Amino acid sequence: MQRMKVDFNYAMKAFVECGLDDTALEKYREKARMGLSRLLRLVDEDKAGFVNLPGQDTSAMKKFAKEMSGKFNDLILIGIGGSSLGMETLCGALLPYGHNARSFSQRGAFPRVWVADNVDPAKISAILNECEPEDTFICVITKSGSTVETAANFNVIYEWLDEGAKEPKKHICTITDPEKGTLREISEKEGFPVFPIPDNVGGRFSVLSPVGLLPAALLGIDIDKLLEGAASVTRDKYEKIITLSSIYMYFMENGKNINVLMPYSSRLSSFADWYCQLWGESLGKRTDTDGNIVMFGSTPVKAVGVIDQHSQVQLFKEGPEDKVVTFIEVEKHEKDKKIMAEYDDYGYLEGHSLGELCNIELLTTEAALKNTGKPSVKISVDSLDEYTLGSLFMLWQYVVPVIGLACDIDPFDQPGVEEGKNYAYGLLGKSGYEDMKQKFEEIFTKRDDFIV
Amino acid sequence: MQRMKVDFNYAMKAFVECGLDDTALEKYREKARMGLSRLLRLVDEDKAGFVNLPGQDTSAMKKFAKEMSGKFNDLILIGIGGSSLGMETLCGALLPYGHNARSFSQRGAFPRVWVADNVDPAKISAILNECEPEDTFICVITKSGSTVETAANFNVIYEWLDEGAKEPKKHICTITDPEKGTLREISEKEGFPVFPIPDNVGGRFSVLSPVGLLPAALLGIDIDKLLEGAASVTRDKYEKIITLSSIYMYFMENGKNINVLMPYSSRLSSFADWYCQLWGESLGKRTDTDGNIVMFGSTPVKAVGVIDQHSQVQLFKEGPEDKVVTFIEVEKHEKDKKIMAEYDDYGYLEGHSLGELCNIELLTTEAALKNTGKPSVKISVDSLDEYTLGSLFMLWQYVVPVIGLACDIDPFDQPGVEEGKNYAYGLLGKSGYEDMKQKFEEIFTKRDDFIV
């Protein structure tokens, strides 16, 4: 059964003037095929571990989740970026909206879930104010073990746990490198249960590793079905991967430096954030693999249908020709609601449903963009569940590196985040970073007449 | 006391190669002054009502909020776009994180708040599943009275209220046009309390009208202080407005088609969404005021610090030179938390606080961007409260129209949203839109070989 479709009609010149003709499509498909074969070579060399995650053994996570079941009212996940966006996507898509507001029994004895990502005191204070240490389990997630925000939040939350829980160390598990790093050492010393992030899986490609799966299992999400959906993105779907990659490369090389992802579903709002990280951090690079300065990368933009029809769509439709929009359609919305028109003026709504209206508006937005010559692509899933979400994750995890590798860009590194981090270590007084503090002070000069 | 500062050092050529020199700054300032004088003329002609909102009488809203106080456990706000983003910003910035998860007493007898914006059945079902009709108050917000998503959600939620509440009509108030429209008629017929949106205040400029203020008052937010902060953006702050407008115009006209807003505070996450609507819908226009086709507008992008340092900052720093980043800094974070380093490896964090770390990371990201020649601007507020939030709203509500008017763009219309809406009416069978259905069907053709 085909649960996912890619419709690229309105990326084609046959429908939209700036789109691909058959020659361009074949040319960029060829390029995408090269990117895919480079990716598959990296997989063979064991350097792109995300591809193999669907085959992992999930029994330890499921066993742990079963042991924990019903024991805690709150789960605090400490992690940031690649260690938080994936599980926020899972929660947003698969838990009922307003999960944390529901009572314990309505949650099926699954905990409330809080994400301590930002070092924002208001957010962290509010979380700690709301939870009871004795009734809270925390999960610390950082591959390197040294992520500064995660370290800071872990220390603050540990202190809170230590003050309020009888056996604080029984309230902690960690997800980190399988062999090395600060958090690995601490976990082994303290006896925290620890789940490994495979060495060849980077943060933004880790949602289908324990980083996403363990929290998901603790929240009652069917992780095997997620992996089953992810596994479906193999040979029979290479056609989708190659098609999407070739279209995005064509538009990137033809003046469109903005890539909008616009799911028509509030449940996929966080998915668009996850996509922004995957795209931006993988493709935004100063140098190519030969060291030439290329300042590569188009900018991912999040939009949510139908909400952004009342916001960004005005710009998408009437503004500059600098974007390609990718819609995600959920063909059948769960728990759909029929509309009974209470007042005559709303009579035209009678008998339609909310989900139907949502999908009609997607079609009419597609049409309106097409009609002003703005290109779009549509990915449709028949419904939104663990399986299709798993396949959406895996689809994009292929598409982005295929584009990078086809364009001689390393999609798996992130050299640009180091500089700011090292200055921060310097300013915080971390030993070994004294020269970074000095360098920061040399760079960070300001003039008062440029402040109003 | 100066509670807000604008630092534009790293937008200047003195620090960043692509930035403004003194001549460019003066040229664009001149242009911005012209935009401002055009705006002030519109204000005189009573065509830009948002400027006068700080002077409005709030007593009816405060009285209503007082009467309602403690009477309901849940408040459902039905509205979308300009009728929802503003109050989501207010809630995100001024209510404690996780407000809805807190008990009635911890909320100070203020209700939980749910936003029925999207026509997403999963979201609406989850809200209705969690609330009790008898214990819920709803507020329907649409200026025209005919917004299709708001009409649909209102009808669905009204039916739910009608089935479960003894006197359903006592559970409803509306915010709409002062004189005309469907919702105005219904409200008068049914006796719903109704609060007016001034005729000369458009949706995306309405956060400081009852659209934002009434829900805020119902949630215990000090609306007078909000207005006081907004009022502070007058003559003494024109310098800030002109500076920001001139810088953004310079970069728009010099190859930067992306404007990033990056507050370093999770509380301002929704503020960035609000900004994206204001910027995108006001400036994204096909024609200028003389009717020339210009396809104007740069694209607003939301980022949240420090979270996006682990995501989009890689692209901002190393990718193409197509962006200007505006940071928002909160100088003093409330409820800050000192870090006690539990483990030696985290010893360098000892004695620092979360808020300090957050702000250090902002400085180091500024420095890292500067060091690769990427321009940025920084808006600082001394702390985040009703007053400074009100001034941030008003600052941007000036800056965006000043840019539009200086560039001969109408910042107050949104012609591009009509087409898709009319097709949708056609497809839903609304009388008078039969030709739109036909036109849609002519446009919306597809080829099967472009679907994989």
From TrEMBL, chains A, B:
GO biological process, one term: gluconeogenesis
Catalysis performed (reactions): alpha-D-glucose 6-phosphate = beta-D-fructose 6-phosphate
EC top class named in words: isomerase
Organism superkingdom: Bacteria
Pathway(s) this gene product operates in, as recorded in its UniProt entry: Carbohydrate biosynthesis; gluconeogenesis; Carbohydrate degradation; glycolysis; D-glyceraldehyde 3-phosphate and glycerone phosphate from D-glucose: step 2/4
Cellular localization per UniProt: Cytoplasm
Gene Ontology cellular component annotations, sorted alphabetically: cytosol
This protein's UniProt keywords: Cytoplasm, Gluconeogenesis, Glycolysis, Isomerase
GO MF term set: carbohydrate derivative binding; glucose-6-phosphate isomerase activity; monosaccharide binding
Predominant localisation class: cytoplasm
Keyword flag rRNA-binding: no
SUPFAM superfamilies reported for this sequence: SIS domain
E.C. no: 5.3.1.9
Residue numbers annotated as active site: E281, H310, K421
UniProt feature coiled coil, ranges: none
Pfam (any one): PGI
HAMAP family hit by this protein: G6P_isomerase (MF_00473)
Family, similarity comment: Belongs to the GPI family.
PANTHER family given in the database record: GLUCOSE-6-PHOSPHATE ISOMERASE
Record function comment: Catalyzes the reversible isomerization of glucose-6-phosphate to fructose-6-phosphate.
Protein name per Swiss-Prot or TrEMBL: Glucose-6-phosphate isomerase
